Every structure is written in structure tokens, then in C-alpha cells.
Amino acid sequence: MKPHIICLLVLLAILQGCDAKLDVAPRGYLTSGTFYKTETDAKAAVIGAYAVLHELYWAEHILTPNEICADNGIPFLTGGADRIAIWRYTHNAANIYPGQIWQASYKAIQHSNVIIDRVPGISMDEQLKRVYIAEAKYLRALHYFNLVRFFGELPLVLSETTNLEEVEVPRSSIADVYQLIESDLTEAEATLPLLHETEKGRATKGAAMALLAKVYLTRAGNTPSSPYWAQAASKAKEVIDLKIYDLWEDYADVFTLANRGGKESIFEVQFLTDIKGNHFTTGYAPRGAPIVPNNGFGIFRVTKSLFDSYTADDKRKAVSFLTSYVHPGTGQTVHLSVDDPDPTVAVSFWKLADPTVRVGLNGGTSWPYMRYAEVLLIYAEALNEANNGPTPAAYEAINEVRDRAGLTALSDLDKAAFNEAVLLERRLELCFEGHRWFDLVRRDQLIEAVTNENSFGRNAPIKEIHKRFPIPFREMEANKKLEQNSGY
Q: What region holds the SusD-like N-terminal domain (predicted)?
């Protein structure tokens, strides 16, 4: 591993371990008189803001709703009642998953707000100060973007919360939330460097641009005439024209430890094997499989719908899924299935597994929040919509992704067929990366997809209200100015 990557990961691990020092919510263990005085304090606060990302991505907070609430994954059906409830769409405001997303996201927003409020007053290098503030704004935008897609209208908290009286904030409109997101990303883009020379894994100019392209894509929704399609295409093209990102030749190379922070990565959440890791190996191995530390947990399995969507010549299928393994005790090959209800023989998500992990739930593979393949697919989708049909550049973008997968080039599609091709390509290319539910919602295909994915007696009574998650009960109790989403 490269020294600069080790440096950032070790800092993240140390600061995550002493997170109380960086959690500046009003709990009385830190005051402005003892911190935020020096350049070292500023850097510690910024690294702490990255460390909070672990809470959202180390296990399943963002992953679970996006995969099992869509049509990609099925939870272990004899445990985790809240996980089963959101899969079946019988969840309510007491479900732990919306609560975890809300709480971790607002904790992260608090970290960003502290940096934005406090760092300007520190005597330090002015350019570095501006970069730190820009990083905080990028991260704040990222968290609000996740939240607005899950919950809709949100309390907009734009400065550090210092006392309990400031906790009660009413929900702002979706338009106002997006206005903040776009403003933060625009400011971040103008200030962030193209690369961080000594520490990969931090926000860059390209990361701000790529996320802004995705924001525009999301705001376009399913509206053919939306001006956001052209904005998404333009911003994605700016990322492409930076000429600093590229696809790895082999799809498997995207997820290896050696390529962490590599040429395809635009922004990722980094982990450290056996020290500060993630659940992606033990958590998603077949239940009880003795091939990982603590044996597999089988938190959820792959749907037949997703598995069968890959053609036989798609190279991504073998990388994405574990379909068999050799039992270390017997030497026999265990074949896995998408049909057998036994969780010990379930096909598992595997592309983010860390084969070197030795300590429990501490895999070191990065969570790829955005990578270059997604930018190409954003560009293709947005061009198709903005031009009322696919252009040569749209074909070139999607076919670059397909070519790496070993698939033939697309051609001669009308607008509707090209749209469906891009949505399918996103599903196959980005599965298990936390995009599917968001994609189905913005394209108004969620109800159809969930209704059609009826494995193992799902029979989800999904309705329009389920295009949002409920405001968590705990938050409704703490903030009397909140109003619950309709239908919950």
C-alpha cells in the first residue's frame, strides 16, 4: 500500500477511535476555548469529518435500503426484524434503518458545520484553510443529498449546534435543500485541488463536479423536458474532460486493496484491514460459511432477478458474486444458489470482500461512493434525455462501460430503449454500491420493480408513500417542529 494512503487511513482509524473529541454535538466535553485554535486542530477536525463516513458505510446503513428495498437483495429471513420489515414494506417510523441514516448523517453534518464556522478564525495558511472549508462543504452536501433522497423535506442546519434549544428546526422544502447542496458543491469545486498530493481519499475538484452531475441527474427525475438533463450532461462532460480518471481494464481491479484511491475512484470511503474495517466480507458471506473470520453472517443474499440480469459473457458477474467455495474442512466444493431458501447456500455479494481480513468485521476494501464508470453512465443517460434520443457521445460513454464488461456495443436504439439500457447498465455495473433504490425512485420505477421481485414470498404492499422513508420516531420526539411524511 502506498505511504500516503496508509497515512490517511491510520489518521482515520485513530480519530475514529477518539471520536468523542471530534463529536461537537452539545454534550459538554469540548469547548471553543480548548480546541479549534491551531492548524493542527483544523486538520484533526477535517479528518474527523471523514471518519464519520464510516458510520454510514462500514456496515449497511446506506446499503440495506438501496439494495433490499429495491430488487437486488433479500435479507436473512429468520433474523433482523427491522431489515425484513423494510424489505417487505411493512416498516414504520420505529424501524432502526431510517433512524441510523438520519442520526449518522446529522452527526456528520454537525462535524462539517463546526469546520465551516470555526476554521475561518484560526491563524493558519489561508489556502489550506480554504481547502479545509471546501472539504467540509463537499461532505455536508453529500450528507444532505443522501438525506433528501431518503426523506424529502429536511431540517436545514447550516451552522454548529451548541445547545439543546437549537435542536428544534422545522423541515425546509426540497428545493431549499437542493439549493444548499448545489451551492456547497459549486463552492467546493472552485476551491478543491485536482489531487491531494499526500493523502488520497479526500474530496477533490473532480469529486465535487461528479457529485453535482449526479445531483442534476436526480433533480431531473423522470421529466423529459427538465433543464437538469443538460446540466447533468455538461457537468459530467467536465469531469471526463479533466482527463485524470479512467476505467481499469479489468472490472475486478476496481475493488482491490492495491488500487484503493486509484484512477477510477472519484470519491470513496476508505477502511483499514483488521484495524478499522467494514462488514462486507464476513457480513455478506453465506451464513455459517467457514471461509471468513467468525464464519459468514449472510445478512442478505442476491435476488434471482439481479443474478439472471447478467448475460453469460458479462465479466462482472463472476466478480460481483460468490457462487461456490471450497469448504476448508472437507475439501468439497459448496455450490451456492439464488433459489434455495437455505441461507447457508445462498449466492452472496462478493466484489467488496477483502480476502486478506483476519479479524472479524474488519475488511479493508473501500466503499466506492462515486467512480468514473458512473460518470460515464450519467453522461450517457443525460445526453439521451437532453437530445431526445441517444447521440454518438452517449453511445460512446455507455459502450465504454460495456466494453470492459465484455459486452457488445449498443446501437440503433430509440430514446426509451436507450433509457432502459442505461438503467440496466447502472444496475449491473454498480450493484451493491448503494444506488439501486435511488435510481428506481428517480425514474418512477420503484413500485413496478418491487412488485415484480417477489422471491421467497415477499408480497410487498408497496405504495406511493414508500418512495420516502418515515422520519424516525426518535427524531419526532426530540424535535416537535418536525412533521411526519404522509402515510406513516
A: 91-217
CATH code of the region 10-192+467-478? 1.25.40.890
- Verdict on whether the full-model pTM lies above 0.90: yes
Per the model's pLDDT, the better-predicted residue between 245 and 12 turns out to be 245
Buried b / exposed e over 128-153, threshold 16 CB at 10 Å, is ebbbbbbbbbbbbbbbbbbbbbbbbb
Q: Specify whether the CB–CB gap between 298 and 288 falls below 8 A.
A: yes
| Mean pLDDT to the nearest integer, 212-236 | 98
Domain with CATH 1.25.40.890 in the chain: 10-192+467-478
Q: What residue type is assigned to position 410 of the chain?
A: L
Which cell goes with 443? 425514474
Average pLDDT across the chain, whole number: 91
Q: Please give the Cα distance from 424 to 429 (Å, whole number).
A: 9
Helix (H) or strand (E) holding 367: strand 367-371
pLDDT in tens, 425-453: 999 999 999 999 999 999 999 999 999 99
335 grid coordinates: 455450490
Q: Residue 337 — φ and ψ, nearest 5°?
A: -135, 150
At 268, phi and psi to the nearest 5?
Answer: -140, 155
Q: What percent of the chain has pLDDT over 70?
A: 92
List C-alpha distances in Å: 403 to 87, 122, 302: 34, 50, 24
Q: What is the pLDDT of residue 323?
A: 98
